[in-house]
Write a structure and sequence with these properties.
The protein contains 15 helices and no strands. By secondary structure, the chain is mainly alpha-helical. It is globular. The relative contact order is 0.13.
């Protein structure tokens, strides 16, 4: 009893007595240094954001978002980059269709079956990590050699394939970590109720980890949307609407019949033509000698920044919803 009272009195003294002057000064000094270094690290980011938004929002209008690029020197024609917005969405969509099934299945294998095949799992994980650090221009050259040389044409398909390779390791590693975060009690409860391994996987584990997997997919898509180097050597660019968009417009306007079926059959060919993108447009217009194209590059940069910000906010919303449902 005496020892317990002495221990309680020591704890009370530690809680109630304020810190010494030297410890207080050290704590406050380290806090000031931490805030100062954090502000110093964020300063370049805010400087870039301020420059892009101050230059880009000045010329942002609805007309810019729905118009095609106008020829240089033509002032009585709307000037915009709607084709680049649609082209970026098209190639990121192709990359998502390519990377998500392979990346998710890779993450499932690494998380759930890796313990039984350690050598194979470690090899796949090592290759995935290496792939995530490969420079994007190298990925673009690989897509160029594989698709552009084979089809003898720069195309949106080649650009989407290159973006898919860039997205693949992010999706695979995020899926693996998301599945590992699911508590082991979920697996034990499912097994206790008679659930098989695949039933536990597809009805319990994957639905529980789905919000985190979706977050990883959205972050990978936002990264792919900002890539420039791989698209320069694969999709190139164009001043016109993406051919797929034009073909879909013709299908909607044509009467139902043999003509519509013929146009639908022509859709795969539209993916084998040069396709515009936001990142390549910004790169080209930023180095242009014409002032109106320089101004449009700033506006396109602010729009691309907004697209990436909306994707990040969407991933945050998905994660927050998951935490609230726990």
């Amino acid at each position: 009893m005496t020892q317990a009272r002495n221990s309680n009195s020591i704890v009370d003294a530690e809680i109630n007595n304020p810190l010494s002057l030297s410890r207080n000064l050290f704590s406050r000094g380290m806090t000031v240094i931490a805030f100062s270094l954090t502000g110093l690290a964020l300063l370049p980011l805010f400087a870039i954001l301020y420059k892009i938004l101050s230059e880009g929002l000045t010329h942002l209008s609805w007309k810019v978002l729905v118009s095609l690029p106008a020829p240089v020197g033509v002032e009585d024609q709307p000037n915009g980059f709607a084709n680049a917005i649609l082209g970026t969405a098209l190639m990121v969509g192709i990359g998502t269709l390519f990377s998500v099934p392979i990346g998710v299945m890779t993450g499932i294998f690494l998380s759930e079956f890796g313990r039984e095949n350690k050598a194979i799992a470690n090899t796949i994980r090592f290759i995935t990590v290496i792939l995530s650090s490969v420079p994007s221009i190298v990925v673009g050259v690989f897509a160029y050699a594989l698709i552009v040389v084979t089809t003898k044409s720069f195309s949106g398909l080649a650009g989407g394939f290159a973006l898919g390779i860039i997205m693949l390791p992010v999706v695979a590693l995020t899926t693996e970590q998301a599945l590992k975060l699911v508590p082991a009690s979920y697996r034990l409860a499912s097994a206790g109720l008679g659930g098989g391994r695949f039933q536990t996987m597809f009805r319990i584990i994957i639905p529980s980890a789905l919000p985190t997997i979706t977050t990883g997919i959205l972050l990978a898509a936002s990264r792919a949307a900002g890539e420039t180097a791989p698209l320069i050597v694969t999709a190139l660019s164009s001043q016109f609407w993406p051919p797929l968009v034009e073909k879909l417009g013709e299908i909607v306007q044509s009467p139902v019949g043999a003509e519509t079926i013929a146009k639908i059959q022509e859709i795969p060919q539209t993916l084998l033509t040069p396709t515009p993108s936001m990142s390549v447009l910004i790169y080209s217009y930023a180095s242009s000698p014409y002032k109106e194209q320089n101004e449009l590059a700033w506006t396109a940069a602010s729009v691309l920044l907004g697209m990436v910000l909306l994707t990040s906010l969407a991933s945050r919303a998905v994660t927050r919803k998951r935490l609230q449902n726990r």
